[in-house]
TrEMBL record:
The lineage of its organism: Archaea, Methanobacteriati, Methanobacteriota, Stenosarchaea group, Halobacteria. It comes from the Archaea. The keyword Transmembrane applies. GO terms for biological process: regulation of cell shape. The keyword rRNA processing does not apply. It comes from Halomicrobium mukohataei (strain ATCC 700874 / DSM 12286 / JCM 9738 / NCIMB 13541). This is Polysaccharide biosynthesis protein.
Amino acid sequence: MDRSLTEAFSALFSAKLATSVISIVSLPIVVRELGTTGYGDYAFLISSFSLYMILVSSGVTEGVQKFVAEERADDRWHEHVVGFYLRLTLGLGAVGAVVVGAASASGLPDRLLGAPFSYYFALLAVLVVAAQLRAFTRRTLMGLGLERYSEPLRVAAKLTWVGLGLGLAALGLGVDAFLVSNIAGATLLAVVGLAVIARRLSVSAILRGPPDDFPTRELLSFNGLNIVLVLLLLSLFHVDVVMMRLLTDGGQTGQYRAALAIAEYVWFVPLSLQTLLLHSSSRLWAERRFERLTDIASRITRYVWLLVSLMAIGLFVLADAAIPLYFGPEFTDTVGPLLVLLPGTIGFALARPLYAINQGSGRLRTPIVATGGAAAINVVLNAALIPAYGMIGAAAATSVGYGSMFAFHVACARHLGYRPLADLRFPSLVGTAVVAAPVIYAVDAVLVGDYLSLAVVPVAGAVVYTIVAVAFGAVTVDELRSVTGALPAPVGPRLRALLPGSDR
């Protein structure tokens, strides 16, 4: 099962890029179909569902990804791990669905939030099972080194969600259209992915119980601690949305969630790295290769800093033009929260790969403390600022919570034994942003018309930023060649052809 990190990242990056493009194209259509209030209600449902699913699936999915990637003396280790987690998946999924179904049947959602939330909860009960199997299947494929299957299936599930959801919405359905399409997309990935797993592993060995010496306690211990860790992490994503809906209304929640959706586009590379580094770093931790962990973490931190800073500068410059065109003129108020979110978005992007490496150590108490610190800051500030300042308060609170995540996980990494800032080149990174940002802003200022700015500024900004970064020593041309070499065709080859000294 030895394989190149570059090949695995290429598969993950390709899928993340494809799903990001699908989201970018479809999101304004979805928002227009649902309206600000409908989109706010949908965002509330998905955020609440995501927090709930931590209890149902997080101990399973990341556990199977970590442990199935390991090599142990047991000849049927992979089958025994998959079988153990499959039984856990089905049991927890059934319990989770019954709880949500019972809440729906009681009518409590309607009494708290208004009709037809009890109906929405009935659909969420079905989604619990579909999403549970989707997550188990994808994480198993990744742990087995089969990203070439898991990631195209992820794209297919995304296309199913968008295509079917918009089709049902056109027929007159609203929020429920996208809940039904989510169920369909999850089911598609689960069914096809399980078929792939069945061809790679012995089904009979999976269905048999594990041997007496199977380390059940070790796996359950990781599962329990991982539930706490993931709950704390995802609270940073969803608590602000839930609190906005409970403390304000669906319209403001929709505006705020739109700002979050734009800010989260900055994370598509860090999220790909996080997904890859959980199982990849597990092998390095098992071999106690701390210098290799330092090398990987420090280079990734610097590269991510450069990329997300460029994207944040672009969003800052173009937000006034892009948001009304993208979502519609009624979302003009989304610009303010987005600008406030950007500093924290950079910090959270830097934290994501470190979070995965720290998680891969298996020593989860320290990452729990680190993530818990950021989560506590986020909850307290949201509770204090939303009643007084609404969307801007939520954005400020969340930005601080996001940014603190990076500081906490750097401290966590040093405690665990590696140095993620060893090759950061902090003065060069800051100098690059300080010099490039005014130039990019000036390019936008001299252009007439929003459409022209949106077409020219991203390309011109990337060129200016790259030249300044190389001049300041934040990155070398050889490093750029190495990074672009990890990107899939046609993106990687075309970018490499633009670098100095490349064959044309």
